[in-house]
Specification:
With 120 residues, the protein is of the alpha/beta class. It is built from 5 helices and 5 strands. 48% of the residues lie in helices and 19% in strands.
C-alpha cells in the first residue's frame, strides 16, 4: 500500500486531505510542522508528501529542500493557499511534482497523486 505524508500546520486542512487520500486506499501519516515532517519522513519513508507552503516554523519550500537532500528521489506536491505564479514556479524548480491550490479540489488532488504514484 502506498503511503502519503500530509504536512500542514492547520489540523482542519490535514483532516480534509486525509479523508480524500485515504478514501482511495492510500495509507496516510501526518505532520503539523516542518520539523515534525522531516522526522516523520525519515521514519515512515512515505511514497509521496503533500506540503503546505505557509507554516510558522519552517516554510514548505525549506521542508521540500530538506526532504530532497535526504532522498533525491522523494516525490512531493504543494497544497497551498499561496497561489502566486512565482511560488508555483519556485516549487517546481525546487523539485515539487505538482501544485494544488487550497481549498483543495478532491478530484484534482487525487488525480495528481495517482499520476505520480502510478509512475513510481
Amino acid at each position: 500500500m502506498k503511503k502519503v505524508l500530509i504536512v500542514d500546520d492547520a489540523a482542519f486542512a490535514r483532516s480534509i486531505q486525509k479523508q480524500i487520500i485515504a478514501s482511495v486506499g492510500y495509507e496516510v501519516t501526518e505532520a503539523g510542522n516542518g520539523a515534525e515532517a522531516l522526522e516523520v519522513f525519515k521514519t515512515e519513508k512515505p511514497d509521496l508528501v503533500t506540503l503546505d507552503l505557509l507554516m510558522p516554523d519552517m516554510d514548505g519550500m525549506d521542508v521540500l529542500k530538506s526532504i530532497l537532500e535526504e532522498d533525491p528521489d522523494a516525490k512531493a506536491i504543494i497544497c497551498s493557499t499561496d497561489k502566486q505564479k512565482f511560488r508555483q514556479e519556485e516549487a517546481k524548480e525546487t523539485g515539487a511534482l505538482g501544485f494544488v491550490a487550497k481549498p483543495v479540489d478532491p478530484e484534482k488532488l487525487l488525480e495528481m497523486i495517482k499520476n505520480i504514484l502510478d509512475d513510481s
